Amino acid sequence: MFARLNQLARHLSRPLPNYAHRSAAASPARLTPSGILSGIQTSSVMATTNAQGKSMIHTAACLIIGDEVLGGKTVDTNSAYFAKFCFNLGIALKRIEVIADDEDEIVEATRRMSKNYDFVVTSGGIGPTHDDITYQSIAKAFALPLVLHDEAFSRMKKLSRPHPSQPDFSWDKPSAALTAKKRMVELPYDDKKADADQVVFVDDGLWVPIAVVNGNVHILPGVPRLFERLLEGLKPQLLPRLTDPEGKGVHRLTFSTPMAESAIAGYLSELAAKVSAKGVKVGSYPRWGKAHNTVTLVGRDLEYMESLAGEVEQAVQGRRVSVEGEDSEAE
């Protein structure tokens, strides 16, 4: 499974031609002696904006935060889901990183990603316990206070239920449990910006907010079902900021070949050079232990890619398939 995730990330995170990332913030931030950024401006990663004045989204990055992932206790599926999400919207996913529940690492990674990419998503570290430090770390990264968000807290009280192990829990009576719960709605907050640009609720059935920091860092939970549900709920707000507002994304044609990669390397190199001007990328992926390998064409110009299908099938002595591995049973 890890090999498949790595292959997916390798394939989807490579930049597509013509989706180039624009220059980062025009005014660089400065570090104070305490290590806090000063002079931070609203993210201006993109030089272009849409009709609503929102920056356009061309590139993305994903930051997975959690000792449990690095320690092998939990398998990260959120980055793979995010990769597919970006691919389907035509957003060029440039980077996926996994880091520890470490304040310094979170500060460094979120500053760097916010500067370099248009759409940044973090996953993990926003629970009630001592090691859930994502909110406080990102607040530090952008010199913001943590503020109890009233609407998020109201939603929490309305939509969440105390655990069976807490039969005497009260929302009105101070307790360690209440303090712990409030940590999940104490968000990095800039009182100079509109609330709607910093705290987004995308699902009426969930109290969990998406906190948005520095204009492009979106803080999501690590629980896969929540991560996926919130990300999908965010899609309507992202579509107007895409090059293709209909969200058609890019297309992938997949071919199964019995040929060794080395046997078709020359042809694929020639093909890649020929199609690059059309914004099409050629991929080649081994399937260890299987009789067939995989070749892909990825790009936006589906008509052009379809015109190449017959040529590719013949050159690699294979056939087009709907999904990789669909011919495994025949093997």
Descriptive labels:
single chain; MoaB/Mog_dom; six-stranded mixed β-sheet; MoaB/Mog-like_dom_sf; FLAD1_M; disordered N terminus; Molybdenum Cofactor Biosythetic Enzyme, Chain A; elongated; 331 residues; MoaB/Mog domain-containing protein; four-stranded antiparallel β-sheet
Structural features, described:
The protein is of the alpha+beta class. The protein folds into 2 domains: 2-241, 3-Layer(aba) Sandwich (Molybdenum Cofactor Biosythetic Enzyme, Chain A), CATH 3.40.980; 251-321, Alpha-Beta Plaits (2-Layer Sandwich), CATH 3.30.70. Helix content is 34%, strand content 19%. The chain has helices at residues 2-13, 67-70, 78-89, 103-116, 134-141, 150-159, 176-182, 224-238, 261-275, 302-315, and strands at 30-31, 37-38, 59-65, 92-99, 119-123, 146-148, 186-188, 199-200, 210-213, 217-220, 251-257, 281-285, 293-299, 319-321. The strands form 4 sheets. The chain has a 6-stranded mixed beta sheet, sandwiched between helices. Strand 9 (210-213) and strand 10 form a beta hairpin. Helix 1 packs parallel to helix 3, helix 3 packs parallel to helix 8 and helix 4 crosses helix 5 (134-141). Residues 1-47 have low confidence and may be disordered. This is MoaB/Mog domain-containing protein.
Residue ranges: pLDDT <50 for 5 or more in a row?
1-47
State the CATH superfamily name of the largest domain. Answer: MoaB/Mog-like domain
In angstroms, what separates the terminal alpha carbons? 20 Å
Strands in their spatial order, largest beta sheet? 4-3-5-10-9-8
CATH class of the largest domain reads: Alpha Beta
**Global outline:** elongated
User: Roughly how much helix do the residues carry, as a percent range?
Assistant: 25-40%
Query: Approximately how much beta-strand content do the residues carry?
Result: 15-25%
CATH topology of the largest domain: Molybdenum Cofactor Biosythetic Enzyme, Chain A
- Architecture of the largest domain in CATH? 3-Layer(aba) Sandwich
Question: What does the average pLDDT come to?
Answer: 86
Radius of gyration (Å): 22 Å
Q: List the domain count as a whole number.
A: 2
**Tally of DSSP β-strands:** 14
Organism: Phyllosticta citribraziliensis
InterPro entries: FLAD1_M (IPR056596), MoaB/Mog-like_dom_sf (IPR036425), MoaB/Mog_dom (IPR001453)
Pfam families: FLAD1_M, MoCF_biosynth
Domain MoaB/Mog: 61-241
